[in-house]
């Protein structure tokens, strides 16, 4: 069964959100869902680009009043 995980990358500046995402994904299984919560708008380009290169799938990408949230499926 696939599991959902959350990574708090708030208050981290580029490239740290991508690095933390990469470190977390290494601990997950194919098909797991990772929700990355950030405050740096750069992640809206950086994490999708990293996912394309590494075979992961973006399921959702949005921002609310305070955070940028990227939901990805581990490939």
Would you mind describing this structure in some detail?
- By secondary structure, the chain is an alpha+beta fold.
- The chain has a single domain, classed as 2-Layer Sandwich (Translation Initiation Factor IF3), CATH 3.30.110.
- It contains two helices and four strands, in the order βαβαββ.
- It has helices spanning 16-25, 43-54; strands spanning 4-9, 33-38, 57-63, 68-73.
- Strands 1-2-4-3 form a four-stranded mixed β-sheet, with helices on one face.
- The longest helix is centred in the middle third of the chain and has 12 residues, at 43-54.
- The model has no long low-confidence stretch (mean pLDDT 97).
The gross shape turns out to be: globular
Estimate percent helicity.
25-40%
CATH names the topology as Translation Initiation Factor IF3
Residue-averaged pLDDT = 97
Low-confidence stretches: none
Task: Lay out the secondary structure.
Blueprint: E1 4-9, H1 16-25, E2 33-38, H2 43-54, E3 57-63, E4 68-73
Parallel strand pairs: 1-2
Antiparallel strand pairs: 2-4, 3-4
In a nutshell, what does this entry contain?
By secondary structure, this protein is of the alpha+beta class. It is 29% helix and 33% strand. Strand 3 (57-63) and strand 4 form a beta hairpin.
